[in-house]
Write a structure and sequence with these properties.
Blueprint: H1 2-35, E1 62-66, H2 77-83, E2 90-94, H3 101-114, E3 120-123, H4 128-131, H5 134-138, E4 143-148, H6 153-160, H7 164-174, E5 178-182, H8 184-187, E6 192-196, E7 210-213, E8 221-224, H9 233-242, E9 247-251, E10 255-259, E11 264-269, E12 273-277, E13 283-284, E14 297-298, E15 301-305, E16 310-312, E17 317-319, H10 324-330
């Protein structure tokens, strides 16, 4: 069982490079020719975006979702997993979430080059106008991996949502490429993202929990990062209680999940991944108690996974695998 699983994950990774590369060339050139200078479109603007609500996402690629503060000095296990999926295409480091984009670029560029990635490019967007420019979209030409850094997840969605850059990201993912993100960059991949809320105490009804629409690459999941380090089990459970259809995924620092197109993920890194499953919830006081009362939820199921373990988001079932498998594959 373990060998079959390892082969599947490798196939997704290397297939992503090939498909993502060819898709990058074709879409990059056609968008530039027909839409940048086409009839009725202002010069320098890229194509109008596709909208997921009208055309649902059909993933063929990989998501690498990192809980933040991934190892950058020792084995760099998570960054290696990102780098190995690039192939001969581009790895684009997107610093859209950050208030210090140049500093983050100076951190990640040498790291990825040191891991053997020859083509590393920087994407930063300061306004929605920039997100519509052909010049910015062309940075994603031939991209097989896009890596979002940390910062503020609302900056990513508010700047890129419903723009040609978002459409290009979606094309990369649907064509077999990899979308990766750490911290804030992790939150944006799901359909609903956690934006803010007290993470160090039990959740209170009517509290400061704030959620917003994400990119929708991973439906039916809500993600929280820096999970154990910031004591966020209360706020993730509260988010799931509001709609138990959603699976909660809490990812520790220096920990990641690698999710394939069938919505099965494998854990890698030093920490744990917490899966909060509310499908069997029998009672919550969300709508019965006054504001500021502590949340009650009965029959929540909690899974705790570490490196090598896998989880099927469709059936909501975990599978145990040795952590050494991941290390043998990547180191």
């Amino acid at each position: 069982m373990a060998r079959r699983t390892e082969s599947r994950m490798n196939t997704n990774g290397h297939g992503a490079s090939k498909n993502g590369r060819s898709n990058g060339r074709s879409h990059g050139r056609s968008n530039g020719r027909s839409n940048g200078h086409g009839k009725g479109m202002p010069r320098g603007l890229a194509a109008r975006p596709e909208r997921a609500a009208v055309t649902p996402i059909k993933p063929r690629g990989t998501l690498i979702i990192v809980g933040g503060h991934e190892d950058k000095k020792d084995e760099k296990l998570i960054l290696r997993a990102v780098a190995e999926r690039v192939g001969s295409g581009r790895l684009v480091v997107a610093t859209v979430a950050s208030t210090e984009p140049d500093e983050l670029w100076q951190t990640y560029e040498p790291l990825f080059r040191g891991l053997g990635v020859p083509h590393v490019y920087h994407l930063n967007v300061e306004s929605r106008e920039e997100a519509k420019s052909e010049r910015k979209v062309r940075i994603l030409d031939d991209a097989t991996v896009v890596f979002f850094t940390g910062g503020d997840q609302l900056k990513i969605t508010s700047q890129l949502g419903d723009t040609p850059i978002y459409s290009r990201l979606r094309q990369i993912y649907e064509s077999g490429g990899t979308i990766a993100g750490t911290s804030a960059g992790a939150s944006v991949v799901c359909e609903t993202m956690l934006v803010s809320g007290s993470g160090s105490e039990s959740h209170r009804i009517g509290g400061s929990l704030q959620m917003a629409p994400g990119f929708g690459f991973l439906p039916g999941v809500i993600i929280d990062q820096h999970f154990a380090e910031r004591g966020r089990i209360g706020r993730l459970t509260a988010a799931v209680a509001q709609n138990p259809r959603i699976v909660g995924m809490g990812i520790d620092e220096d920990t990641a999940v690698v999710c394939n197109p069938k919505h099965c993920f494998r854990v890698l890194g030093a920490g744990a991944v917490y899966v909060v499953d509310g499908s069997d919830v029998t009672y919550t006081n969300l709508t019965e108690e006054q504001t500021d009362r502590t949340l009650t939820v009965f029959n929540v199921r909690l899974h705790l996974l570490s490196q090598g373990d896998e989880f099927d988001l469709t059936t909501r079932t975990p599978t145990s695998h040795p952590a050494e498998e991941v290390e043998r594959e990547l180191v």
